[in-house]
Amino acid sequence: MEDPSVRESKGMQGQIATAPPSYEEATAAIQMQNLTLGVGVPSVRTVRATVVQAFPAQGPDYLKLNTGDQVQVITQHVKGMGGVWVAVHSGKVGKVSPVGLKVHYEPVDLVPKPPTSSPQVQTLTAQAVRPHTPSGPGQLTLQMWEVVQVVDQPPTGPWAVVVLRMTRLENLNIGENDFCGVPRNIGHLQNLKELWLKSLNLQELPDELCLLQNLELLHLGWNNLTRLPGNFAQLSSLNKLLMQHNRFQQFPEQVCFLASLRELYLDQGTGEKFTVIPDSIGNLRKLRVMVLDNNALTSLPTTVDNANDTEADKPQAQVPHDCQDILDDDETTPSGVYMVYPRDNLGGFLVFCDMDTDGGGWTLFQKRQDGTVDFFRDWADYKTGFPSNLNGEFWLGNDKLYRLAVQKVYQLRVDMEDVEGNTAYAAYSTFAISPESQNYKLHIGTYTGTAGDSLSLHDGKPFSTKDRDNDESSSGSCAQSIKGAWWYGNCHHSNLNGLYHLGTHDSHGDGVNWYHWKGYKYSLKRTEMKIRPTP
Asked: Which residues form the Fibrinogen C-terminal domain (predicted)?
């Protein structure tokens, strides 16, 4: 999965905010009397370039340029340096090679400039007020009300313009510009499949945006949105929605009725956070990824388990079963909270994925880092997991852990850090637990690592909590005496769910201990327990 906040949209380069047209579209001319100007669609930001390496015309459609010439680039190909660009020079439009050009990305006027008695012409938008039939070669056929982008207006001769046919666009990125809002008539762009509106300081969206029936990806991140249009659910083809770092005080419930939604990114910034997800989230039967980082969720609705695709004709492989599946789908996926759907078809749930350590793909089931969460809990809490916020300390839940680990052969990694910042790890070649009927008995393989083997003593032992004593001690409950919950025998070499003493402590064995690294009287600062399928 790709990182949504940094991806370059297809057809975007620099500040040119539209997909590259064909050369024929970019150079086609229509008569001015067929257009009405300034309809509000954001203008393309053309850029100026200086020729630093002369090159002759490479074909009939190419410009001949000398060193020092100034050209106006009106479209660039994907990632800028592939193929050719289209530019204006001395009143002529033609192809140029990007090699030998130095681009200046500040907005400038088109070259050539119109007479001084006329206003300076930058790029502008227009809409056909009547159908236009070509009267000569190289001209466009326009339907009534079709929106176009004017990118050159010759200073003399007939009122002809060079245009980009906006309604043919499938990918449009107008993010990180100075536009004051989304144009009200954006609904005319019916071919759009991807629309990027990142970092535009948007406070609201027009209802007309919801008319884009073919839109599959919508990026609204890094704006100031507090609500969505009431008809937002009309975006029936939308399958990926990015709304990071906005100002939602409540979960925008309109999202819960997007029939095709598969990926939802709603991680918040440092401002407003929401605490509740509505029960209607269960309507998202196709949801496979939901990222809610940096919120303040206090609970998850039971309907979140329904938020997966149950259509009979949907291949099981299309949903991720663990974090490794998510990473395999997109190797650029960052660490964070995602939805996974175990193969038992009992529904999905949120997990934290470590996509960085040792190649990534790890599904975390335990994390200690600051002592803010009480881990001295009962059987029911460890069965279901606690708390709902997976960005801090948590225990995923023994039922969920069993559902994950029973799918295939998994390996275990335990990462740990002391108060001084020293780190160590313990890895085990296999990992599994038994179901609740067998008290979640632990099964691990061969040890490797730097922390020492403090878990093999617990292999084959059932799980115990303060209210469910399954250990082998004849002198009482290990969980009660050392204030934890673990696969105790008689009693332990490790106690990672113990009391958070942070560093050395006088009590014996009741801290976040890993005996073979720091002993029984040192409580670790950070621990993470995580699983990943074996190679």
From this structure: 314-535
The Cα diameter of the chain in Å comes to 102
Going by CATH, does the domain composed of 1-19+169-314 fall within 3.80.10.10? Answer: yes
- Domains of the chain, residue spans: 1-19+169-314, 23-165, 342-535
Spatial distance between the Cα atoms of 73 and 52, rounded to a whole number of angstroms = 15
For domain 342-535, give the CATH superfamily. Answer: Gamma Fibrinogen, chain A, domain 1 (3.90.215.10)
Q: Could you read off the pLDDT of 308-337 as tens digits, one per residue? A: 543 323 333 357 899 999 999 888 889 988
Nearest to 513 by CA among 534, 492, 494, 500: 494
What percentage of the chain exceeds 70 in pLDDT?
Answer: 65
Non-local CB neighbours of 250 within 8 Å, separated by 6+ positions: 274, 276
What tens digit of pLDDT does each residue of 234-250 get? 898 999 999 988 888 88
DSSP of 27-62: H-EEEGGGEEE--SPPPP--EEEEESS-B---STTB
DSSP strand pairing (171-173 vs 194-196): parallel
| Residues 311-330 as b or e (16 or more Cβ within 10 Å = b) | eeeeeeeebbbbbbbbbeee
CA distance 492 to 469: 14
Phi-psi region for residue 15, left (φ > 0), alpha (ψ -120 to 50) or beta?
A: alpha
Residues 6+ apart with CB under 8 A from 496: 366, 368, 414, 486, 512, 513, 514, 524, 527, 529
CB count, 10 Å around CB of 533? 17
Lookup: tokens for 333: 């996926």
Cα–Cα distance measured from residue 214 to residue 404, given in angstroms and rounded to the nearest whole number? 36
Architecture of the domain whose range is 23-165: Roll (2.30)
Does the N-terminal peptide bond of residue 323 adopt cis geometry, omega within 30 degrees of 0?
no
Q: What are phi and psi of 173, to 5 degrees?
A: -120, 110
Q: Tell me, what amino acid is at 512?
A: V
Taking Cα atoms as reference points, which of 212, 281, 271, 216 lies closest to residue 245? 271
The secondary structure of residue 100, as a DSSP letter, is: T
The DSSP string of 487-501 is: --SSS-SEETTSB--
Query: Quick one: pLDDT at residue 45?
Result: 43
Report whether 509 contacts 492 (CB < 8 A): yes
Tracing tokens 């809990």 back to the chain, one arrives at 377
